[in-house]
Fold each of these.
Amino acid sequence: MLIAENILRNTEKHRVSNNRFYTSKTSKFDGKVIECDSFPSPIGTVCEIECNDKSYVTGEIIGFKEKKNIIAVHELNANIILGSKIKVLNSSNDVAVGQNLLGRVIDAFGKPIDGGEKNIGLNELWPINGKNINPMNRKPINEVLDVGIRAINSLFTVGRGQRLGIIAGSGVGKSILLGMMTKFTNADVVVVALIGERGRELGNFISEILNDDSRKRTVTVAVPADKSPLLRIKGAERATSIAEYFRSKGKNVLLIMDSLTRIAHAKREVGLALGEQPTSKGYPPSVISMIPNLIERTGAGSKDEGTITSFYTILADSDDTNDPVVDTARAILDGHIVLSRELAQLGIFPAIDLNHSLSRVMNSIVSDEHQNKSENVKKLYSIYQENKDLVLMGGYNQGQNADIDSALNNWPKICELIKQNYKIKSEFKNSYESLNNIN
């Protein structure tokens, strides 16, 4: 027994640490990225850099080039000079997770920014890049998720574990729609990632959109637009890791990420700093590969795990739905909700465009009757949109075409189906009843 204890004690004494504290000095700095003499640490290693005023900032190794380490600085406008000392802090890529995250607001480092207890008390770790799931072991999507929004429940039914995009320009009610989902969705845990948004909106989301009940089951990761591009990327990865952790515990998780476009912009900045060649609209190849990597981490887990139903907002600049980020995300997602500026101008919120929105799993989770009624409403909506100008000009008389007549007669009901007070939840059953009112 004594021999075993001595062996254990000696082993602990001579154990080699994973965090080797190498040092170096800056040889080049452009305001965002440092080049320094190389030292053997992997990508993702966090370093501490001494500034000219004897303060310290942190950065992260993002690549290697010609026997140089490339370090992206976490703080903008850091007072770094040639020869500034660099020290390795941590080479671990794990994220601290646990039940105590519920109800808290944290930053990209996992530090609380909500004014509450600073020590959250997290005793478990999860890889920031996630854990791979064999696609053959993933559960099928066969259960309806009630999101509390009438138009989505009835016309674009969502399944547990589905991944969807919300494609919208500016000022069409995207934030209100996200708030409704956060409050109304039937989920065990809600993880909200507010990445690259205005600082004012972050406070409003917490204080106005989240009530006491929804806050208790919500984890918010907030990285505003004035933070460095690397922190914006890390915020998205941290939020996804937190969602994966709760899924591994058997929870049905709702992940809302606002916005995927801002994350792509941040990745573009990092990629260009590393010397990548820009392609369509200035996006380097690393952006196009990052989007599916991030999205594929969500979805249904294995048989003993829960699910992550994820919504990613995608900004369509000038309402251009053919942007490279939009195209790449739309190809990998299980559906998308497009918000219409025209409906928003008519005061119809949420301004969901029935012509261009889609749920790819709806056919397998609802009845044939529900599917047929949904397709009929979309058909009437499309007919009305195609012929409304003709009707307004007086070029159409009632009775000339049965489909146009039906579209005109049902248009007020269709508007009522889409339109919903952001404070009132529409249960799935009630949403289906509203769908039945349209003939």
Amino acid sequence: MTALRAAVLDGRTGAAVLSDEDVTGALGLCALDPVGTVLATTRLDHARTSGLRSAGGELWGYAEAGELVAACWVGANLVPILPGLAGPARDRALDAFAKLGAYRGRRCSSLVGPRDDVLDLWRRLDGVWPAA
């Protein structure tokens, strides 16, 4: 990942549902790809001042070595936030989000964001989540 690092996740590994305290870290990730994460950024900006519940969604995070390296905004749409992740690290993040998504069930109408991120996440969720 680039020099900009997001909040530490207290030693948690894999994907987890995050709290209001993690919003600033997720916004730091969004800043690394402002075009691809514009939808997530608008919702997280709202959450920064009013809380995730008021913003209408959840924030999922994926940590490696105690650092937030990927996130998803999950509201009416699911928006993966995977700035700069490639290769095995990207695959681990997508696998973790798919596992969390399978556990929590489908709550969104669609996946939105950079094409490759959306399609790769959907390939992992297809068959687990029903089609919209």
